[in-house]
Amino acid sequence: xxxxxxxxxxxxxxxxxxxxxxxxxxxxxxxxxxxxxxxxxxxxxxxxxxxxxxxxxxxxxxxxxxxxxxxxxxxxxxxxxxxxxxxxxxxxxxxxxxxxxxxxxxxxxxxxxxxxxxxxxxxxxxxxxxxxxxxxxxxxxxxxxxxxxxxxxxxxxxxxxxxxxxxxxxxxxxxxxxxxxxxxxxxxxxxxxxxxxxxxxxxxxxxxxxxx
DNA sequence: AACGAGGTCAACCGCGCGTCG
DNA sequence: GCGACGCGCGGTTGACCTCGT
Length: 212
Hints:
Elements: H1 4-13, H2 21-34, H3 39-45, H4 52-63, H5 74-87, H6 91-96, H7 103-114, H8 122-133, H9 137-149, H10 171-181, H11 195-211
The protein binds a DNA duplex (21 and 21 nucleotides) through helix 4 and helix 7.
Pfam family, one: Myb_DNA-binding
GO molecular function, one term: sequence-specific DNA binding
Main location: nucleus
């Protein structure tokens, strides 16, 4: 029978909180020698006073050699929006399509930079249009080319994307949008390198459509 | 310079699923 | 078939950072 005293002594042995450089080194060296797998036993064998879960998380989100660090690019932003509109909060699935990015990173990105705009009037329509647009592989290819060839995110322009913001082939559709939803409120792109630069560009295309 | 508000992100938690004995 | 265990996933937390006043 496990006593409270025994339990607390076990808990005391386990470290929590931020990882130290030494712990990172131990984990990295151990995995480079023995490989991943069986995280609980790995933690014990490596001599780390951490749970298997903690080791796994640290390795996958930070220590793995192929982890990409740094800002999410415009291309990645576009992809995240599209994949999220398709799959919802399936972060690990979305991460599989963004090499080097972790589900945790994408989840954090979405929650901190995208979700706060989710209640904007233009957002649901924008996401729906993106989702529709990228059903065409040509659209993805064109967008990819344009986004990656641009050095200035504030000035990049997406090509004509069928079904996207600039595609109101049906005049009744455009009239319906204005009549039913009114003029959309667009955000101010405070940071040209941010996700909103891409969204801004897309939404601006929609805005031009409305006023032409 | 000091302080508070808001943003960011690493890490933890709890649940559900798959595997194994 | 069933329970125990380990793992992976999505949600949440909290420490730290940045920016505005």
